[in-house]
Specification:
Elements (H helix, E strand, L loop, with lengths): L4 H23 L7 H16 L11 E5 L4 E7 L5 E8 L1 H14 L4 E4 L13 H9 L3 E6 L7 H4 L4 E4 L12 E3 L1 E2 L2 E2 L1 H9 L5 E4 L2 E4 L2 E3 L2 E3 L9 H5 L9 E2 H6 L22 E5 L5 E4 L2 E4 H13 L7 H20 L3 H9 L4 H20 L1 H16 L5 H26 L1
Parallel strand pairs: 1-14, 1-15, 4-5, 4-15, 5-6
Antiparallel strand pairs: 2-3, 7-13, 8-9, 10-11, 11-12, 16-17
């Protein structure tokens, strides 16, 4: 019994170390190994069971406004003021009219204005629009990575949030959404904290907390809320979460500026609604569910916060810790798992007998499935029970490396004793 204690302590230490590494990877804003493919297969299976793709109908509480067909050509300039050529941007006059109506109503829940205001596209007449945005309540605008906001009025308004879609050479499609990027809050995080006064997410170096709870900075997005285009409706999709055109649909501005029926003429058209303004056809990103507008991705990230998907389950961490401990212990002892479990079953201590039973069950499962397959099944289980995902490939790699190190040390000792 005494001879096994140092091994137990080492196994506990390794389990905590591996758990810490897994947490760091969960916090990473990039997808590391195969999450997109796993999500795609899970989504396909669930779609088969439901008979249709999942799409949360939020038509009563969300208003989607598409600016794709409301563009104007402006002169783009470099940082030195040199003209580069004409580029299309969102029509500033129509956008001003829309925001002015919303400000007059002032009964909306929140505005996610997913329209970039870059310094390269700034025009002399834009200052009026910038001033309007800076004076509005419950609104956020994006600052994509590598860009500069067009005006200090916007930058200092406290309404600018990061919009970052992390990809890697392994996963060139969007999978995870980071809420903090280089210490700056994202648009969804700003919405969440303003909508839930008193809730503040703090970045503490490698760890992130909300109140007394441990959270993850990056969350895998299931994209359960989707925008349905008119073409998809015509092909048979349910008409839920359908965007309105900003000019024709919302403002009632027809061809050549003619006036027609407008959605914003209806009483209470924005009351208690999330207003999502963006380019739903031009600004799209490749995901496991196909091309998804950036505005929709940002809003799904906000919904994930509302649902508490960023909060780490302590039960999940405990389950992972036990799993890591058992694997580490078996690798360190270099013994047959059945022999070890039977030794514990023969002891009088109830806790040790329980440990032996659990070890024996795991041994039987792993002998049939192998540890990699068991890790995959455990990941699926934690996803559906705790809504938590851990990196399978990294986990297998860590234990493979541990096994190689233990075997190498053992062989070195044998050679040394000869």
């Amino acid at each position: 019994m005494k001879s096994n204690r140092p091994i137990k302590y080492k196994a506990v230490g390794i389990a905590f170390l591996f758990l810490f590494v897994i947490y760091l990877v969960m916090n990473c804003r990039w997808s590391v190994s195969g999450e997109k493919l796993a999500l795609k297969y899970v989504d396909l299976a669930m779609t088969k069971l439901r008979g249709h793709e999942k799409n949360i109908d939020m038509s009563d509480s969300v208003l989607l406004i598409d600016v794709h067909y409301d563009k104007q050509l402006v002169m783009e300039r470099d940082m030195y003021g040199q003209e580069l050529g004409m580029v299309p941007v969102t029509d500033r006059e129509k956008l001003y009219q829309l925001l002015y109506r919303l400000k007059q109503e002032d009964n909306y829940r929140y505005i996610m204005l997913d329209v970039a205001f870059c310094i390269e596209d700034r025009q002399p007449g834009d200052s009026l629009l910038y001033t309007l945005i800076s004076t509005m309540e419950r609104i956020t605008i994006p600052m994509p990575m590598g860009t500069a906001i067009a005006d200090d009025v916007l930058l200092n308004s406290g309404k600018v949030g990061m919009a970052q879609y992390g990809t890697t050479i392994w996963e060139n499609d969007f999978v995870k959404y980071p809420y903090y990027t280089k210490g700056q809050e994202s648009m969804p995080l700003m919405m969440y904290q303003e909508q839930n006064k008193g809730r503040k997410i703090k970045s503490l170096g490698l760890f992130h907390r909300e109140g007394g709870r441990l959270i993850r900075n990056s969350v895998i997005q299931m994209l359960d809320f989707r925008a349905t285009t008119i073409d998809e409706v015509m092909d048979g999709a349910l008409p839920v979460n359908v965007p309105y055109d900003m000019g024709v649909g919302i403002l009632g501005i027809g061809p050549n500026g003619s006036k027609q029926n407008a959605y914003s003429d209806n009483p209470g058209w924005a009351k208690d609604k999330y207003i999502l303004i963006g380019d739903f056809e031009g600004d799209t990103h490749t995901t496991y569910r196909g091309e998804v507008p950036g505005t929709v991705i940002n809003f799904n990230a906000f919904l994930s916060l509302l649902e508490g998907q960023h909060i780490v389950s302590y039960t999940f961490l405990l389950l992972l810790l036990l799993f890591f401990y058992f694997q580490s212990y078996m690798i360190l002892t270099r013994q047959n798992v059945y022999i070890v479990s039977k030794r514990y079953l023969e002891r009088k201590n109830a806790t040790e007998r329980f440990f032996g039973k659990v070890l024996l069950k795991m041994a039987r499962i792993c002998s049939i499935l192998s540890y990699p397959v068991f890790s995959v099944l455990l990941c699926i289980f934690t996803f559906y029970v705790f809504n938590e995902v851990f990196d399978i490939l990294l986990t297998i790699t860590l234990f493979y490396a541990l096994k190689r190190v233990v075997n190498g040390v053992h062989e070195y000792k044998l050679l040394k004793n000869k």
